[in-house]
Write a structure and sequence with these properties.
The protein has about 550 residues and is α/β, with parallel strands linked by helices. The chain has 3 domains: about 5-105 and about 175-370 and about 410-460, TIM Barrel; about 110-160, Oligo-1,6-glucosidase, Domain 2 (Oligo-1,6-glucosidase, domain 2); about 470-540, Immunoglobulin-like (Sandwich). It has helices spanning about 30-35, 35-40, 75-90, 110-115, 175-190, 225-240, 255-265, 295-310, 325-330, 335-350, 380-390, 395-405, 440-445, 450-465, 465-470, and strands at about 10-15, 45-50, 55, 65-70, 95-100, 125, 150, 155-160, 195, 245-250, 275, 315, 355, 470-480, 480-490, 495-500, 505, 515-520, 530, 535-540. Helix 10 (about 335-350) runs parallel beside helix 14 (about 450-465) and helix 11 (about 380-390) runs antiparallel to helix 12 (about 395-405). The mean pLDDT is about 95. The structure holds 6-O-alpha-D-glucopyranosyl-D-fructose and calcium ion. Calcium ion (CA) binds next to loops.
Length: about 550
């Protein structure tokens, strides 16, 4: 089967923030349908749809209470079917978010599982207290606090790696795997072209022993990329995925290159590609809320490791869990436009399938919130609570949370300068950035030198170049400020990409052979002489 997912660019939609059509302040499926032409024009050929399933929304849909139904906030199953049909008309494929590490505690399986003698008991991970009457082990949740919740009715604890409203499924129970297969068939038959698989390398817990003591997410060595997860992925592939023309991208937490190679090895038939986090953590310490200094050198080292380590990468700089890249690695002030384009150049000239997160194509910036009360995200709220327990003062908590909180990327898409940003006529579920009067789709749509136009050009450039899609990656030059790398098909073509990650101008030495014809740039230059302007990006065709 053709690997069309290597040829196309993916556009991620976070439905509640994309486009509202009925004025309730929440994006919806009819809103997505109304914007398919914009996605097509951008040049994307695949949509990754964050969860639209029935959910009490404790974690904005990543807590599913019915895998075969649509959240009424977003519309109906008929709307979803229409979305598949309208997307197909435009040759846009849709992949769904497969969230199977856990369900909502309001899922029917979990409600039944609360009864000790129910056939569903074993769908989840229930354990009695330890000898001291404490939780079964010392594991902590991703969102702060213990990963166990006591259920007084049955007198046992259940495991939740995320929020207590997200109980973990028990993958030692073959019935759970059969249920997952049915859900996958259901959506593939409806027209899905594959899945983004949420925290897929964490599903199998190989032991319930205490975890090594850590600052956060204690216990992870007992469930990260275990043999059991590999086995289940192979089984899902054999029994389901291999029967359809589809692909999978796994979200792999704490993954290292060794595990990633196993997860993505085409011969093992587990995943087609995966999201790792290393490249977004070069300016963060072990925990994302503690920052350290960024350098282009460190970033290039990480990129090189993954580009050369895996045959095919999922290339991304933003998603619904990460801050906006122009605020993270770029400059969202004076050099907003140029640095956003520089980062677009990076995204679209690496080897792999590029993923663009809604709003990234117009250079949306981090949330302009000023206090915790404006946040919605269960993670930020949980982490704040945990820090409070450790008596960390409010000002320091805010300093750590504000730049990294997940709500940074969840503010509504800025379609226009109007009130409501063209996103809603009602009250938006999450604050709209005040800068929508300046940063919006409408303003950039017909402006040739806009960020949006630049994304379109770069996507076209990639689509038309075998070398940019499939060429080998090699690092060429780097300093704290600048990186350069090449993409090559031996005997055919070579491109060199030079990027300046700073407010200062820079130069690259001539002996590195950084010469060639300028194919793309975020400035007006027509030739390259080794001098780079602040935040400049230059793509050279060397031969
Ligand atoms: O957000 C994170 C890092 O910035 C992670 O801790 C994140 O929770 C982790 O990567 C898992 O993410 C996925 O599963 C979560 C959900 O909250 C996220 O939105 C989803 O992308 C639980 O389903
Ligand atoms: Ca709505």
């Amino acid at each position: 089967m053709s690997q069309w997912w290597k040829e196309r660019v993916v556009y991620q939609i976070y439905p509640r923030s994309f486009q509202d059509t009925n004025g309730d302040g929440i994006g919806d499926i009819p809103g997505i349908i109304s914007r398919l032409d914009e996605i097509k024009e951008l040049g994307a050929g695949i949509i990754w749809l964050s969860p639209v399933f029935k959910s009490p929304d404790a974690d904005n849909g990543y807590d599913i209470s019915d895998y075969r139904d649509i959240n009424p906030k977003f519309g109906t199953m008929a709307d979803m079917e229409q979305l598949f049909a309208e997307a197909a008309k435009r040759d846009i494929k849709i992949i769904m978010d497969l969230v199977i590490n856990h369900t909502s505690d309001e899922h029917d399986w979990f409600i039944k599982s609360r009864e000790k003698d129910s056939p569903y008991r074993d769908y989840y991970i229930w354990k009695p207290a330890n000898q001291d009457g404490k939780p079964p082990n010392n594991w902590t949740s991703f969102f702060g606090g213990s990963a166990w919740k006591f259920d007084p009715r049955s007198g046992e604890y259940y495991l939740h790696l995320f929020n207590e409203k997200q109980p973990d499924l028990n993958y030692r129970n073959p019935k759970v795997i059969e249920e997952v297969k049915d859900i996958m068939h259901f959506w593939l038959k409806k027209g899905a072209a594959g899945f983004r698989c949420d925290v897929i390398n964490l599903i199998f817990k190989s032991s319930y022993a205490d975890g090594k003591r850590r600052l956060a997410i204690q216990g992870r060595e007992h469930y990260t990329s275990q043999e059991g997860s590999h086995r289940i992925l192979q089984e899902l592939n054999r029994h389901v995925l291999s029967q359809y023309d589809c692909f999978t991208v796994g979200e792999a937490a704490f993954v290292d290159l060794h595990d990633a190679k196993l997860l993505c090895d085409p011969d093992r038939k587990e995943l087609d590609m995966l999201f790792y986090f290393d490249h977004l953590n070069v300016d963060r310490r072990i925990e994302k809320y503690i920052s350290k200094k960024f350098s282009a050198k460190k970033l290039l080292a990480v990129i090189t490791k993954w580009q050369q380590g895996l045959d095919w990468n999922a290339v991304y700089l933003e998603n619904h869990d990460q801050p906006r890249i122009v605020s993270h690695y770029g400059n969202d002030g004076e050099y907003w436009e140029r640095s956003a384009k520089m980062l677009a150049t990076l995204l679209l000239t690496l080897r792999g399938t590029p993923y663009i997160y809604q709003g990234q194509e117009i250079g949306m910036t981090n949330f302009d919130y000023t206090s915790m009360s404006e946040l919605n995200d269960v993670e930020a709220i949980g982490v704040d609570k945990m820090m409070r327990k450790f008596h960390i003062p409010a000002s320091l908590r805010w300093k750590m949370i504000a730049p990294s909180a997940r709500d940074n990327s969840r503010t509504p898409v800025q379609w226009s300068a109007e009130d409501g940003a063209g996103f809603t006529k009602g009250t938006p579920w999450l604050g709209i950035n005040k800068n929508h009067t300046k940063i919006n789709y409408e303003e950039q749509k017909n402006r040739e030198d806009s960020i949006l136009s630049y994304y379109k050009e770069m996507i076209k450039l990639r689509a038309g170049s075998e070398t940019l899609k499939y060429g080998d990656f090699a690092p060429v030059y780097c300093t704290k400020q600048v990186m350069a790398y090449s993409r090559t098909i031996i005997g055919d073509e070579q491109y060199v990409v030079i990027l300046n990650f700073s407010d200062k101008s820079a130069s690259t030495p001539l002996e590195n052979n950084l010469v060639g014809k300028v194919i793309a740039t975020n400035t007006n230059r027509t030739d390259y002489n080794g001098e780079l302007a602040p935040w400049e990006a230059v793509v050279l065709k060397v031969w």
